[in-house]
Design brief:
single chain; Helix Hairpins; 199 residues; Histone, subunit A; 10 helices; 60% helix
């Protein structure tokens, strides 16, 4: 949910994230445990105990980012929050103002739904089918919204209509999480999308 915000912070604050090689066995252990509701709940609580600051922005259902917090701590002995603080030690390189665009929720969701329709019409199912046929294990990109739902459709776990609605639903949820993340950061100047300057 917070990727865009992290990219922005990396730019304006000069944050440098160190390269890390993760233990694949530990990662697989976490992902397997996260497959059950009870297991994911325990991982979430453990991540909250280790790094409560980072977990303020992570949903209890967000397997990927919960596991990421735990992996970082195991690999470095430091929390994700601590590493981000260390990475900011050189301070911002520029004078800057950060703007965010606010949109009426109904219009935002309408725009998201239309974008998903365009993605499907542009060949998303065929693209995923092509990737699906080449790999025994799915690349990380295949876990992205849109890709994973098409995989479920190809595996007959969803009907075409269910796939389409699920992509739209997950996209709307993602947008909502992003808005929540940005609104928790008080250093943004919010603009109304209906008052755009036009030539």
């Amino acid at each position: 949910m917070e990727e865009l915000g992290l990219y922005i912070n990396s730019l304006v604050y000069g944050i440098e994230y160190q390269d890390m090689e993760f233990d694949l066995n530990y990662r697989n252990f976490l992902l397997e445990k996260a497959e059950t509701e009870e297991g994911l709940f325990k991982l979430y609580n453990e991540a909250c105990r280790i790094d409560s600051k980072s977990m303020e922005f992570i949903s209890p259902n967000d397997k990927k980012r919960i596991c990421r917090v735990l992996e970082i701590y195991k690999e470095t002995g430091k929390t994700k929050t601590e590493l981000e603080i260390l990475s900011r030690k050189n301070g911002p390189k520029y004078d800057f103002v950060k703007f965010a665009m606010n949109m009426d929720r109904e219009k935002l969701y309408e725009s998201i739904n239309k974008r998903v329709d365009i993605m499907i019409e542009s060949g998303l199912v065929e693209e995923v089918k092509n990737i699906y046929s080449k790999y025994n294990e799915y690349p990380t990109a295949m876990q992205a919204i849109g890709y994973k739902e098409v995989v479920e459709f190809l595996e007959n776990k969803l009907t075409y209509e269910e796939m389409l609605e699920k992509i739209k639903q997950e996209s709307r949820r993602y947008a909502k999480r992003q808005l929540t993340w940005f609104r928790k950061n008080n250093d943004y100047v919010w603009l109304d999308s209906t008052n755009r300057i036009t030539k």
